[in-house]
Amino acid sequence: MSGRRRLDWLGLTPEPERELPLAVAVLRVPSPASPSPPPEAPPPAGEPVTGEPAAEDPAAGEPATAAALAAAERRRVERLVLRGSRHGWLRYLAEVTELVTSVAEGSRPGDRAAALLAAEVVLDHHRMLIGLPGTGYGRTARDRTALENAVRTLRIPTRTGGSR
I need a surface site. Which of 34, 125, 140, 157 has the fewest CB within 10 A? Predict the structure, then answer.
């Protein structure tokens, strides 16, 4: 095989890079009562690409807002798609799977609608891996099962103190 990077994983579907940043940012918001972030404006030109979203705004020393988390998550996904590898991308999706399943199991507070959206997007992605060469489909078998269970759980409406 040549030394060229394999990029077939990038052509699966645009939904993860379009829909996951906002959904994942909502799941990362520390408070379960936090509102969903507003639609994100594009980051200013020349803004540095950072790693994972920070839980705090280092300049202010305060918790990051949902909008700031959404912007950071969008930059992270962009960096993974433009400069990452299949392995790094699958590692990110495994992290999203962990967030989703934690919300579905109730071990982590979070927005169930955002968790359901993220679960469905990642599950669709993982199912499409069967059409690509390599071990991606086999590597994601456990995550597919966890996501299928999470989707079933998250689709069941919950009763809150304010209903009935």
Answer: 157
